[in-house]
């Protein structure tokens, strides 16, 4: 339980409007958002979910969960993060839901990121960077990560993503150019997605009970 996560999540409800289809992320902060969104369930058209975990929670509240292929673009996406820098670049994927989160963020006009103050950093990389990989490519990708970044990839053994893939967490990175690192890692064959949300970063960041901060494009 975190009061700051709950406050950020409830504050994000101000971006929800009648008849919207809301993109919904994954994690403990988003769980508070979903609980608050339940009060809107008869006023919104539904939600697009980034994970089985969030789908289950939303369905438990009677919120209709829709397929992104059927909805088209969304106006709003709300999600948490593992780290957030001053420009709204994020590390995400601590909950292994990064690929679907990335897809929904890309499909949405406004990405509202909800965090507590412990997630704020000057430079990304203290939190190990999650990378979703095709299982047969795990060791190939790991070797290339070492030579490209100098970071240490660690297999999150036992974790299988909702897409049937595996996760490598890259330790000991100092990501001073998040857009470049994201692009470089995306080039490795076998990488499904990288938990750096840099090219498509947050548009608004809400930290605990602080007022929402619009991030410069
Ligand atoms: C899941 C995520 C989460 O947003 C991130 O891990 C933050 O989680 P929490 O809100 O539980 O601190 O990226 O893949």
UniProtKB/TrEMBL annotation:
Quaternary structure and partners: Homodimer.
Keyword field contains Isomerase: yes
SUPFAM superfamilies named in the record: D-ribose-5-phosphate isomerase (RpiA), lid domain (SSF75445), NagB/RpiA/CoA transferase-like (SSF100950)
Pfam family for this entry, one: Rib_5-P_isom_A
InterPro entries: NagB/RpiA_transferase-like (IPR037171), Ribose5P_isomerase_typA_subgr (IPR020672), Ribose5P_isomerase_type_A (IPR004788)
EC number, UniProt record: 5.3.1.6
Origin: domain of life: Bacteria
NCBIfam families: PRK00702.1, rpiA
Pathway the protein takes part in: Carbohydrate degradation; pentose phosphate pathway; D-ribose 5-phosphate from D-ribulose 5-phosphate (non-oxidative stage): step 1/1
Binding site for substrate: 26-29, 79-82, 92-95, 119
Reactions the enzyme catalyzes: aldehydo-D-ribose 5-phosphate = D-ribulose 5-phosphate
Protein's name according to its UniProt entry: Ribose-5-phosphate isomerase A
Coiled coil residues, start to end: none
Active site: 101
GO function terms (MF aspect): ribose-5-phosphate isomerase activity
Broad class of enzyme this protein falls into: isomerase
HAMAP family: Rib_5P_isom_A (MF_00170)
CDD domains per the UniProt record, alphabetical: RPI_A (cd01398)
Family of the protein in this entry: Belongs to the ribose 5-phosphate isomerase family.
Keywords from the UniProt entry: Isomerase
Function noted in UniProt: Catalyzes the reversible conversion of ribose-5-phosphate to ribulose 5-phosphate.
């Amino acid at each position: 339980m975190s009061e700051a996560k709950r406050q950020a999540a409830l504050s994000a409800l101000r971006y929800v409007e009648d008849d919207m289809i809301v993109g919904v992320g994954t994690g403990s902060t988003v769980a508070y958002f979903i609980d608050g969104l339940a009060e809107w369930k008869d006023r919104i058209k539904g939600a697009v979910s980034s994970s089985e975990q969030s789908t289950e929670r939303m369905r438990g509240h009677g919120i209709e969960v829709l397929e992104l292929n059927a909805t088209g673009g969304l106006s709003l996406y709300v999600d948490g993060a593992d780290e957030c820098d001053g420009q709204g670049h994020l590390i995400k994927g601590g909950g292994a839901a990064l690929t679907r989160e990335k897809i929904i963020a890309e499909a949405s006009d406004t990405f509202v990121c909800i965090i507590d103050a412990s997630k704020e950093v000057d430079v990304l990389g203290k939190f190990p960077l999650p990378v979703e990989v095709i299982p047969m490519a795990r060791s190939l990708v790991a070797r290339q990560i070492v030579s490209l970044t100098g970071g240490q990839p660690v297999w999150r053994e036992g974790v299988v993503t909702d897409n049937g893939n595996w996760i490598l967490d890259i330790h000991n990175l100092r990501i001073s150019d998040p857009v470049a690192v994201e692009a470089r890692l995306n080039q490795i064959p076998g990488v499904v997605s990288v938990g750096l949300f840099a090219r498509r970063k947050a548009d608004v960041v809400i930290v605990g009970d602080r007022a929402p901060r619009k991030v410069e494009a």
